Amino acid sequence: MRIFGEFSLACINTAGNTLSACTPGSGKVAEQLKKQLERPNLTCEDVLAILEERTLAAQHELASRTDAGADVLGYLAKHGGIATRRAVAANIAAPPAANLLLGDDEDDEVRIELARKIARLMPDISREEMLHLREMAIALMEKLARDQAPRVRAILADEIKHLTCVPKKVIDTLANDVEEIVAAPILEYSPLLSDADLVEIIAGARAEFALGAIARRKSVSHELSDVIVGTLDIPAVAALLTNPKASIREQTLERLVETAEKIDTLQEPLVLRSELSERTIRRLAGFVGAGLLDILSRRRGLNEETSLMLQRQLRLRLGERKAAVPADEPLHFASPDLVQDMEFILDAIRAGKKEEVMSALAALAKAPPGTVQRIFESRSAKAVIALVWKAGLPMRVAFQIQSLVLKLSAGEIIPARNGKDFPLTQDEMCWQLHYFDVPSKNCTNGTFSP
User: Fold this and answer.
1) What CA–CA distance (Å, rounded) separates 161 from 157?
2) What is the pTM of this model?
3) Is 58 left (phi over 0), alpha (psi -120 to 50) or beta?
4) CB 3.0 to 4.6 Å from 362: which of 81, 236, 324, 372, for a disulfide?
5) What is the Cα–Cα distance from 341 to 161, expressed in whole angstroms?
6) CB–CB of 76/91 below 8 Å?
7) Are strands 447-448 and 443-444 parallel, antiparallel or unpaired?
8) Separation CA 182–CA 150 (nearest Å)
9) CA dihedral 263, 240, 245, 432 (to 10 degrees)
10) Does residue 34 register a pLDDT over 80?
11) Per residue in 94-121, pLDDT tens?
């Protein structure tokens, strides 16, 4: 029978007089054991049984303490149970040797806790006086960046994606990972990746997500934008166009107009770009729908010729659409059939007709009007996105409601993923619907059910 470690057996007696010396730093456990050991007529077998019963609790408590001592934490890292080793892995006081040992632990959660800790300690061990600790931390981080479990690598990537004090080698390893949950955060956020690095990654991209993640970076240069557009990857190009921080040359935007005429996905992201030339605007007006024409016509700074041309095109589009609607069909949102006409819904959104938009969503989402009103009053971008999803409408409707009806600030608006996809997971949208008591047959207690 293995008891709590060699240091425990060496200092136990039936009177309990030396208990505090054998469990350093374990105050609560020591106090409990002491009370049990003070019972009268306690035999040696009783002592061993009590100690065996409390072993795991004592180990875990010691493993979590920063004052337990390097020897104790090292011992627990080697001999402790899974919960104990996880606690040591998360303990900032664990000695370097214990950390290196835990880097090869068979339990994924142990290595995950270790990855979190090492990443968060890096800024504090960058000083010269801690150079020896930094070298060991770097070695451990490089090992974790190649860990066999994607979750371990993903935790490390998420923790260091904004840092500048981590080794470039680690960033390069994670950026080229084949798993999206690992590489995407680094590709999208890491300041250590240069344009040259990103172009090289694009050239050898082994996964579709890489382009989209790079297109969403906080800053995308003209040169990098040209490379992304040159790939002809539509989701990545759409993500680039919806990124307000991406710099795109006028010539590049003009080239994209030709593509957008055949690919609807690119039309709205193009129309919403702020740096369109008059020539590009007039070319877009030749083929986009009435809703997007309306957005173009509202742009500031247009010359008179372009403004008049847009108004003529808009009247033409509206005339064509109304001609297709029976004369006796009322143009309001009380009819569930009518609200399915995307152009009418988008017209109401762009005109800022909040009541009509709420009525349309209530009808399509089969939600009480009062509930829809509460969602709008909450000004929650996530809740609006979930409601639009429930209504069976595309993400661009949710984007326009955020900007044109709720008039959220740029920092509050949640854009589409890859230019067209919903940015929330189905479970996240179900949670939002559940929170506002919106019934959905595919959602149970806020969780998506296929």
Assistant:
1) 6
2) 0.62
3) alpha
4) 372
5) 43
6) no
7) antiparallel
8) 7
9) 90
10) no
11) 888 898 899 989 999 999 999 999 888 8
Tokens describing residue 217: 């970076």
Q: For 310-357, how does the pLDDT look when each residue is reduced to its tens digit (9 = 90+)?
A: 888 877 776 655 444 444 443 344 344 444 456 667 778 877 788 888
Report pLDDT for 244: 87
Q: Which amino acid is at 186?
A: I
* Rounded distance between C-alpha atoms, residue 418 and residue 373, angstroms: 29
Please tell me the distance from the alpha carbon of residue 47 to that of residue 29, in angstroms, as a whole number: 14
Task: Go through the chain and tell me how many residues it has.
Answer: 450
- Residue 251 and residue 276 in contact, taking contact as beta carbons nearer than 8 Å: no
Task: Give the burial string for 383-408 (b: 16+ CB within 10 Å, else e).
Answer: bbbbbbbbbebebbbbbbbbbbbbeb
User: Which ranges constitute the DSSP H helices of 261-353?
Assistant: 267-271, 278-285, 290-297, 304-323, 342-350
Give the Å distances, CA to CA, from 184 to 309, 329, 365: 43, 49, 33
Identity at 187, one-letter amino acid code? L
DSSP code for 416 = P
Q: How far is CA 103 from the centre of its chain?
A: 26
When comparing pLDDT for 306 and 41, which is higher?
Answer: 306
Cβ within 8 Å of residue 174, ≥6 positions away? 145, 153, 156, 157, 160, 182, 183, 186
Dihedrals phi, psi of 421, to nearest 5 degrees: -85, 155
The residue written with tokens 């072993």 in the block is: 55
Residue type, position 347, single letter? D
Measured CA to CA in angstroms, residue 314 lies from 308, 318, 321 at distances of: 10, 6, 11
Residue 246, classed as helix, strand or coil, is strand
Q: Are 47 and 33 in contact (CB under 8 A)?
A: no
Are 421 and 395 in contact, with CB atoms under 8 Å apart?
yes
Q: Are 237 and 228 in contact (CB under 8 A)?
A: yes
* pLDDT value for 9: 32
**Residues 304, 130: Cα–Cα separation, whole Å:** 66
**Distance between CA 419 and CA 241 in Å, rounded?**
7
Beta bridge partners of 190: none
By the 8 A CB rule, do 329 and 356 touch? no
Whole-number Å distance between alpha carbons of 373 and 377: 6
Q: How far apart are CA 97 and CA 42, in angstroms?
A: 40
**Count of other CB atoms within 10 angstroms of residue 326:** 5
> What pLDDT is stored for residue 133 in this prediction?
74
